[in-house]
C-alpha cells in the first residue's frame, strides 16, 4: 500500500513477495495478483484500458507504481517460467463500510471536514463496493491463464468524487465542502469492457454503496447529528 514505506520496503512488499508466493506455490491452479490503477501513465482524455502505457507520473509517490509495475512483470515472467496460471487485477477505487478511498472522503464529510480536490477535474472514478470485489476476485481465479490475463478491476458505473461526496452529504444531512490542493490523487476512469466480458458486471450501484457506507458512519455520529428519518 502507498504510505510511508521506504523504496526498498515498497519493492519487498509489492514485487518480491509476489515472486516468493508463486515460487513457493507453483503447483497452484490459479494465482490472483492484485496490482493497481496507479500503474497507468497519465492520459488527458478517455478511460484507462489494459493496453494503455504504464508510468509513474500519476502518483505523488512514484515508488508505489514502480513497485507495482515491477510486480506485474515478475508475475508474468514466473507464470510463464513455471507454468502457473495467473490473472493480474489492476484495482481501481474499492470501498465499503470498513474503508477504502471513497469511504475516507465520505468520512471527511461526516466529520465536517472539507474534501480535498486536486486541479484535474472532474475526478472521475469507478467505485467498486466490497461485496462486488469479493465476488469478482473469487471469479477472477477462473480466468487465470499462462501467460496471465490483465484486467481492470473496477465498478461498471463511472462517477465523480464530487457526485458521491455530495450524495453522502445529503444522506448525512451535512454540507459537503471542498478544498483545493495542488497535488494528490488523479482521475482514474476505468474501461471495464474486458472485466465484464471475463467475469461479469458489478451489482452494487454507487448510490446504494454510498447509502450503505453512510449507514455505518451514522452509527458513530452523536445522536443529535443524525438526520431526521
> Which range does the strand content fall in?
5-15%
SSE class: alpha/beta
Query: Which CATH class?
Result: Alpha Beta
Mean pLDDT level:
93
CATH structural architecture: 3-Layer(aba) Sandwich
Q: Count the E strands.
A: 10
> SSE order, as H and E?
HEHEEEHEEEHEEHEHH
CATH topology: Rossmann fold
Which bin fits the share of residues in helices?
40-55%
**Cα separation of the termini:** 38 Å
Low-confidence segments, given as residue ranges, are none
Tally of individual domains: 1
Fourth-level CATH superfamily: NAD(P)-binding Rossmann-like Domain
Total helices: the number is 7
Largest sheet: 3 strands, parallel
Strand order across the biggest sheet? 1-2-8
InterPro entries: Epimerase_deHydtase (IPR001509), NAD(P)-bd_dom_sf (IPR036291)
Pfam families: Epimerase
Domain NAD-dependent epimerase/dehydratase: 6-111
Helix-strand layout with pairing:
Blueprint: H1 7-24, E1 31-36, H2 63-82, E2 86-91, E3 94-96, E4 99-100, H3 101-110, E5 115-117, E6 124-125, E7 128-129, H4 130-140, E8 149-153, E9 159-160, H5 161-172, E10 178-180, H6 193-199, H7 206-219
Parallel strand pairs: 1-2, 2-8, 3-7, 5-10
Antiparallel strand pairs: 3-4, 6-9
Helix pairs in contact: 1-2, 3-5, 3-7, 5-7
Amino acid at each position: 500500500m502507498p504510505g510511508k514505506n521506504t523504496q526498498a520496503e515498497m519493492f519487498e512488499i509489492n514485487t518480491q513477495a509476489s515472486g516468493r508466493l508463486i515460487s513457493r506455490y507453483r503447483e497452484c491452479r490459479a494465482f490472483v495478483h492484485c496490482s493497481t490503477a496507479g500503474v497507468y501513465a497519465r492520459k488527458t482524455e478517455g478511460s484507462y484500458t489494459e493496453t494503455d502505457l504504464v508510468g509513474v507520473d500519476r502518483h505523488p509517490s512514484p515508488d508505489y507504481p514502480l513497485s507495482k509495475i515491477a510486480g506485474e512483470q515478475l508475475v508474468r515472467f514466473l507464470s510463464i517460467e513455471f507454468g502457473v496460471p495467473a490473472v493480474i487485477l489492476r484495482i481501481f477505487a474499492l470501498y465499503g463500510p470498513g474503508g477504502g478511498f471513497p469511504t475516507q472522503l465520505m468520512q471527511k464529510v461526516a466529520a465536517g471536514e472539507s474534501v480535498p480536490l486536486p486541479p484535474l477535474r472532474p475526478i472521475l472514478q469507478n467505485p467498486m463496493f466490497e461485496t462486488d470485489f469479493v465476488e469478482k476476485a473469487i471469479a477472477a481465479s477462473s480466468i487465470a491463464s499462462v501467460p496471465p490475463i490483465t484486467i481492470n478491476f473496477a465498478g461498471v458505473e463511472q462517477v465523480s468524487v464530487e457526485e458521491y461526496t455530495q450524495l453522502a452529504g445529503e444522506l448525512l444531512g451535512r454540507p459537503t465542502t471542498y478544498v483545493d490542493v495542488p497535488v494528490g490523487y488523479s482521475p482514474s476512469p476505468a474501461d471495464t469492457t474486458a472485466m465484464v466480458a471475463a467475469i461479469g458486471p458489478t451489482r452494487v450501484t454507487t448510490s446504494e454503496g454510498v447509502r450503505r457506507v453512510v449507514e455505518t458512519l451514522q452509527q458513530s455520529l452523536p445522536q443529535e447529528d443524525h438526520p431526521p428519518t
